[in-house]
Design a protein that fits this description.
Layout lengths: L1 H22 L2 E11 L9 E4 L3 H4 L2 H17 L3 E2 L5 E17 L2 E11 L4 E3 L10 E15 L5 E11 L4 H12 L11 E8 L1
Parallel strand pairs: 2-3, 2-4
Antiparallel strand pairs: 1-8, 1-9, 4-5, 4-7, 5-6, 7-8
Length: 199
């Protein structure tokens, strides 16, 4: 009897252990990426960040985003340097939506912020039942545009992701890596790029 009980307990604990190990491992940030490379950027090129007037209005947020972009650009062999001939403009947009479920009825509200465009948006749907179950989702998009000394665009890439993760810095960093996948000659057309990051 004890032997049978022991086997049953082991068979029940194995799936639980696998589930727990999966929860503590990695997560996948899957981004829809669309890239354009009208000119090939030479490996090891140096660049400087370029900011629009609206981006200058939010220097702390923009500097934080540029730091994430600098790490991603370093992974593809580019280095940041003052007065470089190559300029990089980076932007990020996020929308947050909370959906309230009350007896099967979903009502939500949305908040959003914009890195690099100097705008803050508030959604139009009102949360009428704040005591109901809430599910939050986040839609994000990052964009990278590189220009040469004459101002011509030599590389452009956009990545968008929709998910449940609230830690924006980690998700944006993965999205920037996705946007630069295949640099300096990325595939043409929209593609799905998956980046693994820690939970």
């Amino acid at each position: 009897m004890n032997l049978v009980l022991g086997k049953l307990l082991r068979s029940a604990l194995i799936p639980l252990a696998l589930l727990l190990s999966g929860c503590s491992g990695m997560r996948v940030i899957d981004s829809q990426v669309n890239s354009f490379a009208p000119q090939v950027v030479a490996p090891g090129s140096s660049y400087q960040f370029e900011r629009l007037p609206s981006q200058l209005a939010y220097p702390v947020h923009q500097a934080k985003l540029e730091k994430l972009a600098e790490q991603a650009l370093g992974k593809v062999g580019l280095r940041r340097q003052n007065n470089a001939l190559l300029s990089v403009q980076v932007t990020a947009v996020e929308r947050q939506e909370n959906t309230f479920n009350q007896n099967g009825v979903g009502i939500g509200w949305g908040l959003g912020w914009v890195f690099g465009h100097g705008a803050i948006s508030v959604g139009s749907r009102g949360g009428m039942f704040p005591w109901g179950d809430t599910q939050t989702s986040y839609w994000r998009q990052v964009s990278l545009i590189m220009r040469n000394a004459s101002g011509a665009v030599v590389f452009e890439s956009h990545a968008s992701h929709d998910g449940i993760w609230s830690d924006s810095d980690a998700v944006l960093a993965a999205m920037l890596d996705a946007a630069l996948q295949g640099f300096p000659t990325p595939p043409t057309g929209t593609r799905l790029v998956k980046i693994d990051i820690p939970r």
